[in-house]
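re: ur question from earlier - yeah i can do the single chain one, its not a big deal. heres the input i used so u can compare w yours
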Amino acid sequence: MDYELRDTPEEWPIESTEQLAVGQVTSYVCDRVQMVDGTTANRQYIVHPGAVAVLVLDDQDRILTLRQYRHPVRRVMVELPAGLLDKPGEHPLEAAKRELYEEAHLQAGDWRVLIDYYNSAGSSDEALRIFVAREPVAADGARYAGEGEEAGIVVGWVPRTELLAAVMAGEVGTASIVASVCALTVALAEPGGWERLRSADAPWDARPF
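and the output i got, formated as tokens:
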């Protein structure tokens, strides 16, 4: 059997599409899809603009984290600075820099792509790119005034090993934190780890730019 170890584009025939609901950010649709055996089935999923997140690592091997309330899970979650790709024409890197400025009033000198993934490919087309940034400094200009949920954000620096331990203990469960902290730890353990990471403008098939 020929098995290719990579995700590849493919689209099965769609007999019909129905928009079930429209929200402020996402929509919910139902496609009638032809299966590989010739049968058809309904597939409902969320259409999402995509998002970016930033893992900021300082010279003390600490990671910038945010605590923010998330209503669907009724929890205050430990998270990375992150945001939607909802501004037409905005490059993912620029979106990440904007979110870092708005949520933590920081900028960084060295940016790389850490990982790309789909948050829940069985129920949403949401794609997420996580950047890793070093050399953080205070941002220029006035501090951004957050509103709504963002008004309650609390910022903190956590040692990378401590954050990894919290992930492995099940105490921190935000997808971007779990994926990125584990990925960065593996990358840094390899020879030339940082330099092997992709450039900040590496292609992204899920959200071409």
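The mean pLDDT is 94. not sure if urs matches, ping me
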